[in-house]
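Chain particulars:
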Amino acid sequence: MPGIAPDTVFNQGWDMDKRRFFGRPAGLTVAQIILLTGAECHDAARLSHVITDVAPLELAGPTDLTFIESNKYAGALATTRAAACLMLQRFEGQAPSTLILLPTERPYRAFVNVHRELYPQSLRPTSPFEANDIAQGSTIHPTARLGSGITVDPGAVIGPRAEIGAGSIIAATAVIGPDVLIGRDCSIGAGCSITHTLIGERVVIHPGCRIGQDGFGYIAGARQQKVPQTGRVIIQDDVEIGAGTTIDRGGIRDTIIGEATKIDNLCQIGHNVVIGRHCVIVAQSGLSGSVTLEDFVVLGGRVAIASHVTIGRGGRVAGGSGVMNDVPPGKTWGGYPARPRMQWMRQLVTLARLTKSGDTAEAPSILSDQS
């Protein structure tokens, strides 16, 4: 809020330290962290020290675990108050004497393993209403079939003949359309709408997603003529879809999201798109109709892909790129329009040199007399 100090906003008698959204962990000993991560520790006397939380270097306290793997944060390492630190071996000489050193080849990955162990409840969304059954105020069609242990929040709507597997959560105001199938242990976020869709198991769909609506198809003319969209969306097991993402159903074939693919917030997946297994699509990316991503493709943020383009297995596209042509398997492309990485980098360097050279010359006036 402009002109208002942050302290003023929260000066309402609230105890900010006690208002936490995840329960405080029971903690892990240093010895347990070593078993979990494979890190080393040369101070046997401190193996029983209990770690109760995780924090960045500059904010960590005497019961926190932190990590470092970049020279950028070496200054913060020297002054950290953390109890223990997962680190690359080269940082050991820069650490304060009070710190329990836990050298490992992959500090951040080890840190994430500990974070997951301390906060397992953070890995899967729960009911915003903190319900654990079918709440009053939800609307479930008599022909819908619900498995055991399902949570349905107030305001949720489950349509005719929909089937939802055991242990799944349908959050407040989510709408599940007729004949939709949702597997076991899925989480459908608040305000989602899901139609014309088949969903596997352990799928997480964050709030505000729109899945299964019409694809964008028209025949051009004096009056655009709508093309029927009679396909489906198929979402395979272990997929996660970020908040506000939209996935259109297919036209005459299915839109498919492959196993364990992760899609960030605010992405657009057009009709007939086929996305392979274990792909990563970062925020604000847009895939036009009939795009194919083969397995293990990675798209940076705000990538735009033209219709009918294929990105081969293991291909990578840099953030902000516009892809107009197929990307070969295993290759990295970037730019607008996108091209092979080395060609793109050479062109950027050449352009920078030309720009620098032009700065030293006298530029002609656009108002000079050309007659």
